[in-house]
Amino acid sequence: MYFSVLRERRGLDEEKLTTRSETCEALYQELNDRYEFGMEIKHLRVAVNDQFAVWQTVLRDGDKVAFLAPVSGG
Amino acid sequence: MFYLSDKRLEDMGERLSAKNERGGAWVWFEGRVRNDHEHKEVTHLQYESYEKLTVTEAQRIIDEAKQKYDILDIRSAHRVGNVPVGEISVVVGVLAEHRSAAFDACRYVIDQYKKRLAIWKKTNYADGQSVWVNGQGDSRDRLAAEENIGEDMHVR
């Protein structure tokens, strides 16, 4: 799942994919290499299955992952 | 209680009021859309949210405030979608027996919302430009624009 600036850079709200990446961090690097989001991981957060997660979280089949740019609510 | 709404918060009425006869202080914060950002005229803000994550985290923040401060109730809401200048984008209402805890809790909640809720806002300007607030993409695109145009402009 993508939101805000990442959504605009990817051109999609969400996508289903098959990956060999084992962690959230590896998945982001894989997608960033392909789509050049231009945002370093240290500036982002990640959520897995609707909960904030750490970048080393191991991915399982069917997991829903969201990459989150710095928030600006309020 | 927290609501994420694509409708005007001004119209939410009773859902945002707290009633408890023990309450002697009701503190109410409204975040409104200003007409100016970085000296440019704003038309509206566009809010986007990861809804499930936002609602869960907002409730967590409210629960924290109830633990930290001696308060009775919190009523709160945040907009998604387009919010024109002058309209309300976020509200936090805190009911307590006494005002000190109500003020402190209200401040805590809005400060935590700004740091932790999965909500992003895009400022839309009268000149047709728009920019995501606080995103790293903001500064990168500005830099690219400056390189292309050769002058210091906040444009896309």
How does this structure look, described?
The complex is a heterodimer of chains A (74) and B (156). Chain A has helices spanning 4-10, 24-35; strands spanning 45-48, 51-53, 65-68. Chain A is of the alpha+beta class and 74 residues long. Chain A has a three-stranded antiparallel β-sheet, with no helix packed on it. In chain A, 31% of the residues are buried. The mean pLDDT of chain A is 93. Chain B is an alpha+beta fold. Chain B is built from three helices and nine strands. In chain B, helix 1 (51-68) runs antiparallel to helix 2 (99-116). The longest helix of chain B is centred in the middle third of the chain and has 18 residues, at 51-68. In chain B, 33% of the residues are buried. The A-B interface holds A 1, 3-9, 38-40, 43, 47, 50-52, 66, 68-74 and B 31, 47-50, 52-54, 56-57, 78, 89-90, 110, 113-122, 132-138, 140.
Helix content of chain B: 25-40%
Oligomer: heterodimer
Q: Give the SSE order of chain A as H and E letters.
A: HHEEE
Approximate shape of chain A: globular
Instruction: Give the termini distance of chain B in whole angstroms.
Output: 38 Å
Largest interface: A-B, 24 and 32 residues
Strand percentage of chain B lies at 25-35%
Order of strands across the main sheet of chain A: 2-1-3
Biggest β-sheet strands, sense, barrel of chain B: 5 strands, antiparallel
